[in-house]
């Protein structure tokens, strides 16, 4: 998973081995609530996951001397991994009892937790399933508001909702890194408005060549290494 706007060859999203692979590896856990009777719409879940990543990055506990700051720094110094798991009923209640932040979309609920070592998940989260996050949009999502950030998904890849949620989170994080402190504050104060949409095929080539933050997947799951998955189209970066 590499992004083209970083001049460094040591990118947290690059599929080739880099110095980041020598650092201790962490993962950002995201848990989406999927109750059998009322699962969220796919786009709602994707947008809520992307916002959850931004909420964690901007939380006072994640910066400076905050209680999560060291582990967030360690995570960002290594590979930027995110794993989405699903929970319902008692599983969701157990997940909610752990330190983290629940972000709510239209209906979707996603809880984001401070990063954990790759092989050191809390048992309440380790038990949760990664598979089974196949969600649908009952009706096509409305056209994205061009004045707000849009995370454009590749039209060429078939990703599960869980995989797409993680990729949308990567895109949001790349946009966040590229913004100035003032631009970050404005986005945060507005409640992190954003849309996640699949790019029209004709537009995708344009977007990937635009210089906007681009996620290339490292290929740990589902798709081939180096696949372009998301372009983060934030108005301040155009």
TrEMBL record:
Compositional bias per record (Polar residues), positions renumbered to this chain: 1-12
Catalytic activity: an N-acyl-L-alpha-aminoacyl-tRNA + H2O = an N-acyl-L-amino acid + a tRNA + H(+)
Keywords: Hydrolase
Main enzyme class: hydrolase
GO terms assigned for molecular function: hydrolase activity
Pfam families attached to this UniProt entry: PTH2 (PF01981)
The name this protein goes by in its record: peptidyl-tRNA hydrolase
Organism of provenance: Streptomyces pseudovenezuelae
Taxonomic classification: Bacteria, Bacillati, Actinomycetota, Actinomycetes, Kitasatosporales
